[in-house]
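User: Let's play a game. I give you a shape written as tokens, and you guess the letters that built it. Ready? Here's round one.
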């Protein structure tokens, strides 16, 4: 399980943590946590539409960040200037 998380959260070298992946994971865990807290402690009704919009927004932003970052990621070998 640790190796899977490391592969998800790091760049291609499996050593450098990727900020986009870490922030996406934190946002998703936070969203699930706050939704659970709202359901259990506040007796709120779960609204799957609002939850889905939130998840889609986080994943869309993460995808856009990865797309914009792909040209700057080091592929190995000698880096070009």
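Assistant: Ready! My guess for every position:
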């Amino acid at each position: 399980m640790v190796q899977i998380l490391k592969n998800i959260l790091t760049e291609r070298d499996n050593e450098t943590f990727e900020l986009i992946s870490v922030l996406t994971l934190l946002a998703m865990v936070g969203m699930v946590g706050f939704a659970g807290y709202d359901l259990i402690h506040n007796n709120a009704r779960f609204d799957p539409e609002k939850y889905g919009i939130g998840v889609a927004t986080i994943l869309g932003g993460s995808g856009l960040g990865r797309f914009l970052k792909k040209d700057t990621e080091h592929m190995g070998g000698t880096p070009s200037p």
